[in-house]
Automatic annotation (TrEMBL):
Main localisation: membrane
Record domain ABC transporter: where: 4-245
Tree of life domain: Bacteria
Alphabetized GO MF terms: ATP binding
Gene3D superfamilies: P-loop containing nucleotide triphosphate hydrolases
One Pfam family here: ABC_tran
Keywords per UniProt: ATP-binding, Cell membrane, Membrane, Nucleotide-binding, Translocase, Transport
Record membrane topology: Peripheral membrane protein
Name of protein: ATP-binding cassette domain-containing protein
Localization, UniProt: Cell membrane
InterPro entries in UniProt: AAA+_ATPase, ABC_transporter-like_ATP-bd, ABC_transporter-like_CS, ABC_transpr_CbiO/EcfA_su, ECF_ABC_transporter_ATP-bd, P-loop_NTPase
Organism: Tetragenococcus solitarius
Length: 278
């Protein structure tokens, strides 16, 4: 069942003549993880802003088409109300830190406070998130004194705290080291198991290959490819859109060619090569 859908979306920023999103349509199903790839400036962040209702509420310009959340146009929800349904972790975590809370612990609780969630429920939830995001050592620190990567984790924890049905993550690992990046993907897996729908903008295709159900490929504001992860990320034709295939997939295609099911992960490659006798 579709939880959020976009139909024939076109968008032009104010005072610009060229649309940056062109005729994009798709439907997200509950409980699935969608990986979104595309070269710089292909329109990924703009698309996130449209899905969250920031366009046209905060950014003006010309938006055509229809965004529907649970069978109702998102224009019928107010922007604050949508925050409880559609979480959005921004590409730059600095802009997400509230600036009014002195500790990481309070920062994570802040959104819940605004929604009027009872104190005991709020404390229990923050405690859980501190453990899930491994923020135990940072919980009493000022959010502004954290590194970029730590801010990114806190910003994401604050979004998850509101328990939204859809979570949009715009390059959530851009400032994280490899171990913390893996941790974020584990959290994505955990959120998927909890029934959340995840829209994950990310350049690291090796990890998308392991964790996503479907991949969307944007190029010049158009959705040029959309499908099951195994189909999109094994298709060499995506290289023309300036994105990569997983490293192991490239290796396999060079060694064996497009025979049988093309592997996307280390485990799949190992199995495929053992089977082929290479
Ligand atoms: N506020 C704005 N006003 C005018 N044009 C904008 C604005 N924000 C983005 N753009 C333009 O819209 C296009 C898409 O940008 P967007 O940030 O959505 O792409 P992206 O795929 O998220 O890029 P990146 O990977 O670099 O973050 C770009 O050409 C960009 O210059």
């Amino acid at each position: 069942m579709s939880i959020l859908s976009l139909k024939n979306i076109n968008y032009c920023y104010p005072l610009e003549n060229e649309p940056v999103i062109q005729d994009v349509s798709f439907a997200l199903e509950k409980g699935k993880v969608y990986g979104v790839i595309g070269e710089n400036e292909s329109g990924k962040t703009t698309l996130c802003n449209i899905m969250r209702g920031f366009i046209p509420n905060l950014y003006k310009g010309t938006l055509r088409g229809e965004v529907t959340f649970k069978d109702k146009s998102i224009s019928e929800y107010n922007i604050g109300e949508l925050a409880a349904h559609i979480g959005y972790s921004f590409q730059n975590p600095f802009t997400q830190i509230s600036g009014v809370k002195d500790t990481v612990y309070e920062e994570i609780a802040y959104g819940m406070e605004n929604l009027g969630i009872p104190r005991d429920k709020m404390t229990q939830r923050v405690d859980e998130l501190i453990v899930l995001f491994q923020l135990e050592k940072l919980k009493d620190q000022n959010p502004f004194e954290l590194s970029g990567g730590q801010k990114q984790l806190v910003a994401l924890a604050s979004v998850v705290a509101l328990d939204p049905e859809i979570i949009i993550l715009d390059e959530p690992t851009s400032q994280l080291d490899p171990k913390s990046t893996e941790d974020i993907f584990q959290i994505v897996e955990y959120l998927k198991k909890a029934g959340k729908t995840i829209f994950l903008v990310e350049h690291k295709v090796d990890l998308l290959a392991e964790y996503c159900d479907e991949i969307f490929l944007l190029y010049d504001g158009r959705l040029v490819m959309q499908g099951k992860t195994a189909e999109v990320l094994s298709d060499e034709s995506i290289l023309q859109y300036r994105v990569q295939l997983p490293q192991v997939t490239l290796f396999y295609l060079k060694l064996v060619g497009k025979k049988g099911k093309v592997p996307l992960t280390v485990a799949e490659t190992f199995k495929a090569l053992k089977g082929s006798g290479e």
